[in-house]
Amino acid sequence: MFDLSPYNTFGLKVKSKDGLIVNDVADLRRVHSENIIVLGQGSDVLFTDDFDGTVLINNIKSLNIDFVDGKYIVKVGGGVNFDQLIVSLIEKRIFGLENLSYIPGTVGASPVQNIGAYGIEIGDYIKEVTAYDLQRHIIQTFSKEECEFGYRTSYFKTHKSRRLFITSVTFELSSEFKPKLVYQGLKDENFVNAQELRDKVVELRRTKLPDPRLVGNAGSFFKNPIVSKEFAEKLKKEYETLPVYPYDENNCKLPAGYLIEHAGCKGITHGNVGTWEHQALVIVNRGNAKPHEVVALAKYIIAEVYRKFGVNLEPEVRTYGRTGEVSWDTL
Ligand code: EPU
């Protein structure tokens, strides 16, 4: 048995049949199990049960930096800690990822759900992703287009039947600091250097989001829902303070945190789980939480938000059960 407690930031006491720390591609050639889950630091997963298979922990730590045609091409091993990468890039005066500071997890996990925060998404900075195909035992490189990035999604999340292990991610970054300040809380700031921007983002995250080293959680539990423009306008008439963000020509994005708060679910506690007092979108482990308690609270929140707003929330975290990834509707 392999203890998964250190590999899920929810801090749930779950186990898998086997586990392997993968330090390089050679380790992957020896993997022949059929039932596999790949994890980095487990900062975006919910285990609903023990897992009856092998968990591979991405611990590939390589870093390769080139300067080509005025751009930095940075190829990073999938097991590198994402925030430590940002710290070392700023030290080397390589810019672009500062807004994503302090996000827990590994570089290999970052393209899977196309992590985003404070006005940027990682997909915009990715040149290519290299993955090891665990069924065919070959290495495949995906161009940015082949990664099919969308809001909190990518090819790696939607093609569930393909067992891919992301060995490295190649970023295209800048030698000049050009801050992106579209996020409301950053707009009016004047950052003279990347470290200042990073410090501000770290401060924002610290005030709104629980530190998973202290309080078990997996960041935003739900995605911000996409609804039609007409529906958003109708809701806005009723709830004047509701923020509505543009998404595409016909649709808008609504902040799930607002909906959850106004459905009366911010800061609540059900048994050993609850929602964070400063950001209702985050489900937290209040100590000794059991997987079924997280599922029950999430279902309660979905029902309450639907009852109040007629909006269906969908989980953003990936959910795994005894046999592998499970779809939320089957729980
Ligand atoms: N809001 C509330 N109540 C709450 C939480 C939020 O009314 O309890 C309102 C805020 O006042 C604000 C709006 O909702 O007007 C948006 O809130 P915020 O800026 O905190 O961002 P978010 O939409 O709730 C998203 C990402 C976060 C990311 C932040 C900042 C998703 C699912 N979440 O949250 O990502 O850090 O923007 O860019 O898109 C994550 O994915 O794990 C994550 C933390």
TrEMBL record:
User: Where is this chain primarily localised?
Assistant: cytoplasm
Its pathway? Cell wall biogenesis; peptidoglycan biosynthesis
SUPFAM superfamilies linked to this entry? FAD-binding/transporter-associated domain-like, Uridine diphospho-N-Acetylenolpyruvylglucosamine reductase, MurB, C-terminal domain
One GO MF term, please?
UDP-N-acetylmuramate dehydrogenase activity
Q: Which UniProt keywords apply?
A: Cell cycle, Cell division, Cell shape, Cell wall biogenesis/degradation, Cytoplasm, FAD, Flavoprotein, NADP, Oxidoreductase, Peptidoglycan synthesis
Q: InterPro entries recorded for this chain? A: FAD-bd_PCMH, FAD-bd_PCMH-like_sf, FAD-bd_PCMH_sub1, FAD-bd_PCMH_sub2, MurB, MurB_C, MurB_C_sf, Oxid_FAD_bind_N
So what does this thing catalyse? UDP-N-acetyl-alpha-D-muramate + NADP(+) = UDP-N-acetyl-3-O-(1-carboxyvinyl)-alpha-D-glucosamine + NADPH + H(+)
Q: Which residue intervals define the domain FAD-binding PCMH-type in the entry?
A: 12-176
- What is the main EC category here? oxidoreductase
Superkingdom of this protein's organism: Bacteria
Q: What is its EC number?
A: 1.3.1.98
Q: Where in the cell is it found?
A: Cytoplasm
Record: active site: R152, S220 (proton donor), E316
Q: What does this protein do?
A: Cell wall formation.
Q: Which HAMAP family match?
A: MurB (MF_00037)
Q: Would you tell me the protein name for this molecule?
A: UDP-N-acetylenolpyruvoylglucosamine reductase
Q: What is the lineage of its organism?
A: Bacteria, Pseudomonadati, Pseudomonadota, Gammaproteobacteria, Aeromonadales
| Gene (UniProt) | murB
